[in-house]
Specification:
Elements (H helix, E strand, L loop, with lengths): L1 H20 L3 E5 L3 H12 L3 E5 L59
Parallel strand pairs: 1-2
Keywords: FAD, Flavoprotein, Membrane, Monooxygenase, Oxidoreductase, Transmembrane, Transmembrane helix
Protein name: Flavin monooxygenase FMO
GO molecular function: monooxygenase activity
Length: about 110
């Protein structure tokens, strides 16, 4: 394992030098918070980025959707609606708000 770790810095240096002269075409899968922040950082580095999101909203599991999935508990009905949200209306946290947030200034400037 150590053998592979020793090659990482040289590979990273090589990759950085390549991206400085030739922008990469990067696909980001998912427009959840990680995908959005990754996209922001790649764009700051002047990379070509395409984001793929299956939902009609960005935010991933942090998007509240009041709908619930149909009563098809086994998921056998191919026409069932799929609700992809981990939030619910009475969800609360016992952590301080500053620990549950971070700044995303400039995120709306992405094109």
């Amino acid at each position: 394992m150590k053998k592979h770790l020793n090659t990482l810095p040289s590979f990273a240096t090589h990759l950085i030098s390549l991206t400085m002269t030739h922008p990469l075409n990067v696909a980001v899968i998912g427009a959840g918070i990680c995908g959005l922040l990754t996209t922001r950082e790649l764009l700051r580095e002047k990379q070509q980025v395409t984001v793929f999101e299956k939902s009609d909203k960005v935010g991933g599991t942090w998007v509240y959707d009041p709908r619930v999935e149909a009563e098809d508990l086994l998921g056998l009905d191919p026409n069932r609606s799929i609700v992809h949200s981990s939030l619910y209306s009475s969800l609360r946290t016992n952590l301080p708000r500053p620990l549950m947030s971070f700044s995303v200034k400039g995120i709306t400037d992405l094109k």
